[in-house]
Specification:
The complex is a heterodimer of chains A (271) and B (287). By secondary structure, chain A is an alpha/beta fold. Chain A folds into two domains: 179 residues, 3-Layer(aba) Sandwich (Rossmann fold); 67 residues, no CATH class. Helices cover 39% and strands 22% of the residues of chain A. Chain A is built from ten helices and ten strands. Chain A has a six-stranded mixed β-sheet, sandwiched between helices. In chain A, strands 2-1-4-5 form a four-stranded antiparallel β-sheet. In chain A, β1 and β2 form a beta hairpin. Chain B has one domain. With 287 residues, chain B is an all-alpha fold. In chain B, 72% of the residues lie in helices and 1% in strands. Classes of the chains: A alpha/beta (271), B mainly alpha (287). The interface between A and B is large, with 49 and 37 residues.
């Protein structure tokens, strides 16, 4: 038996290809337990594909990854028991109330019914939605929904919580309160947070950040070390430094090649 | 406030087992019921078409049909067929929610839970069957208005057949829904399929003495067997002449051989299970 617990996430040479397109090209990194890990990169860099592989929604083409000590390819059920997810798009049931959504989640994960009410109250209070527990989700604003999603993702005490742009489209108040929950949670349960964001001020709050581009991790360090390395005051500059200034809309390598070609044409025309 | 360190209520997620699957099925099933219960509009609108067929078409064509129905009201005759039509519409409509869930992301919540995808499909098929049968129950309640007796055995039998038929139709709907990713496409496909299925099922006419092409098409349509087993059950509880029995509920024949009711039930059930199995395979493959 291993006396030291395994790291929260261990990724080794992870590759995902769709046909000819290489979405993720051999990514390796380790996330320590209890760490808040920021996963950054331009659109189409392969972040979502990587997250999908880590949470067993996509099978790696090659390489391996372990989450909370379990292999994402061969121990999918065990991985799933130990992770929570908050997606970019809404996955709540609008027809149900806030409480019903959480109760359903608890049931889906087989949580002992005896502890569900207490746990639910705690999670809803944390995201300030306890008073609205009996309202249908349809009546909630975007920020409230996101908070409820976070509460739901935490219902089963996940070891690792994946947050895919959890604060996108939210007002600054909601964003800062979401960060408060993330901190509180990390302190209370030692949950590891793996999050993607496009907000550099938020990336600043992470313990470490990895910047991904064109399917590879370009750089991985603490925000302070990254700034020192580039000699910049702001993470924005660090980000631009490592990923370039071209705009990306591409999902796959072949399309991003096309957009690169277009950038070349456009910059040529300017000359 | 909430940012201070919390006294955490500890929870543990058990390992996946058959109980997790049973739970997942129940959740999907119950969700269909909750939706159905909260959507009174749907219950009402879903009734319009069957009622039109049953009472307007039934009454309107009665004088025309009277000469050949041996004293049986046309409404009585088309009652089982109209119930089947209602089941088809309701069950197909229920499968739409699978497409909606895919579009709106709720399905992702189920997909990352420690449960098998097959449980989601099975739960969905059972949910659709239950909801459509509940809808059908409203029509069953109207039996008295079309001279069908409120015999407990008959009603129980009809409800059982409703569950079976609705299950198979839902399995079909789910199979389509798993492959189709947009609601518009699904409704188009559904409209393209449902009316021909209905018209070629013998819901509105006896399936004996038809032109050969129609004879062949009705035999190929699974809904024909569903309508026929329902109609046989209804006619077994009616007090009508042997001639009427023979003319209106002749049963489905294959080259002159009358297909027994049990085989008809078997066909519908086997088809439903087969389509569900294919849907599960398709669904498990989506990554």
């Amino acid at each position: 038996m291993n006396s030291t617990p395994p790291p929260a996430i261990e990724v080794d040479g992870l590759v995902k290809t769709y046909g000819d397109a290489e979405a993720v090209r051999g990514v390796s990194f380790t996330v320590a337990r209890g760490e808040i890990f920021g996963f950054l990169g331009p659109n189409g860099a392969g972040k979502s594909t990587t997250i999908n592989m880590l949470c067993t929604l996509a099978r790696p083409t090659s390489g391996s990854a372990r989450v909370s000590g379990f292999d994402v390819a061969t121990e999918r059920d065990d991985v799933r028991r130990h992770i929570g997810l908050v997606f970019q798009d809404q996955t709540l049931d609008g027809y149900l109330t806030a409480a019903q959504n959480l109760r359903m989640h608890a049931e889906l994960y087989g949580i002992d019914a005896g502890v569900v009410p207490a746990r639910m109250r705690q999670m809803l209070e944390m995201v300030d939605l306890w008073d609205r527990r009996d309202s249908t989700v349809m009546t909630f604003s975007g920020g409230m929904r996101r908070r409820l999603e976070i509460a739901r993702g935490l219902m089963h005490s996940p070891r690792v919580l994946f947050l895919d742009e959890p604060t996108i489209g939210l007002d600054p108040q909601t964003r800062s309160s979401i960060w408060r929950y993330i901190r509180a949670l990390q302190e209370a349960e030692g949950t590891t947070i793996f999050m993607t964001t496009h907000y550099m001020d938020e990336a600043e709050l992470c313990d470490r950040i990895a910047i991904m581009d064109r399917g590879e991790i370009v750089v991985l360090d603490t925000p302070a070390a990254l700034k020192a390395r580039v000699g910049a005051d702001r993470l924005d500059d660090v980000f631009m430094h490592f990923t370039g200034a071209a705009i990306r809309d591409a999902e796959t390598a072949s399309v991003s090649d096309l957009s690169r070609a277009m950038v070349r044409v456009m910059s040529g025309a300017r000359r | 406030m909430s940012a201070t360190v919390m006294e955490v209520v500890a929870v543990r997620v058990p390992e996946r087992s058959w109980r997790s699957e049973a739970r997942a099925m129940r959740i999907v099933w119950r969700r269909d019921l909750i939706r159905f219960g909260s959507d009174r509009m749907r219950i009402a609108t879903m009734l319009v078409q069957p009622l039109l067929f049953l009472f307007v078409l039934g009454a309107g064509l009665q004088t025309l049909a009277a000469a050949s129905t041996d004293g049986v009201d046309l409404k009585t005759f088309i009652f089982p067929g109209v119930i089947c039509m209602a089941l088809v519409f309701s069950a197909m409509f229920n499968a739409i929610s699978l497409v909606m869930d895919r579009e709106f992301g709720f399905l992702r919540e189920m997909m990352v839970a420690p449960v098998r995808r097959s449980s989601i499909v099975v739960g969905k098929c059972l949910g659709g069957a239950t909801v459509a049968s509940l809808q059908g129950l409203i029509l069953l309640a109207l039996a008295g208005f079309v001279d069908v007796p409120y015999d407990p055995l008959l009603l129980l039998g009809l409800f059982g057949l409703q569950l079976l038929i609705a299950f198979t139709v839902t399995a079909f709907g789910v199979l389509v829904a798993v492959r189709v990713k947009q609601i518009q496409t699904f409704t188009t496909v559904m409209q393209m399929l449902v009316m021909p299925l209905f018209f070629l099922s013998g819901a509105l006419y006896p399936v004996a003495g038809l032109p050969t092409w129609l004879q062949v098409l009705t035999r190929l349509n699974p809904l024909t067997y569903a309508v026929d087993e329902m109609r046989r059950l209804v006619f077994a509880h009616l007090d009508v002449s042997a001639a009427a029995q023979q003319r209106l509920a002749p049963g489905v024949t294959w080259f002159g051989w009358r297909v027994p009711t049990l085989l008809e039930v078997g066909i519908v059930l086997a088809l439903g299970l087969a389509m569900m199995a294919v849907a599960i395979r398709q669904f498990a493959r989506t990554e």
